[in-house]
Design a protein that fits this description.
Number of helices: 2
Radius of gyration: 15 Å
Strand content: 25-35%
CATH topology: Macrophage Migration Inhibitory Factor
CATH architecture: 2-Layer Sandwich
Largest sheet: 4 strands, mixed
Order of helices and strands: EHEEEEHE
Distance between the termini: 18 Å
Shape: globular
């Protein structure tokens, strides 16, 4: 934990998408909140999506899953760091009006299971 899932409904080439993922991942690594080996990040590029009343539009939405227990202040700092990293990486590569957002979700410890294969 954490898991960062970025949905990228923006017109980006593979290199820019990879750079965006790297930037957001590093923001979490350098936050000082997590052990590096625990941070897991990925990008999902949907085949079809809608935004508002029309097909298309551009947005990037990050969803950060955390084990419960972190304060709202820490969650906000992490969300802001992810949005800043993505925004900085995409500057000049997405059109005006592109929406970049991040939502942080708590996962209850009671319902989370994990096993590391050895």
């Amino acid at each position: 934990m954490p898991h960062l899932i970025i949905e990228c409904a923006a017109s980006l080439d593979d290199e820019r998408t990879s750079r965006m993922l790297d930037a957001a991942h590093k923001a979490l690594l350098f936050s000082g909140v997590f052990d590096a080996q625990d941070v897991k990040s990925r990008v999902i590029v949907p085949d079809r999506f809608k935004m508002g009343e029309h097909e298309g539009g551009q947005f990037v939405h990050a969803l950060l899953h955390l084990i419960e227990g972190r304060s709202a202040d820490i969650q906000r700092v992490l969300a802001d760091a992810v949005v800043h990293a993505i925004t900085s990486e995409l500057a000049g590569f997405v059109p005006a009006g592109t929406q970049i957002s991040c939502d942080v979700r708590d996962i209850p410890r009671a319902t989370y299971a994990k096993h590391v294969v050895r």
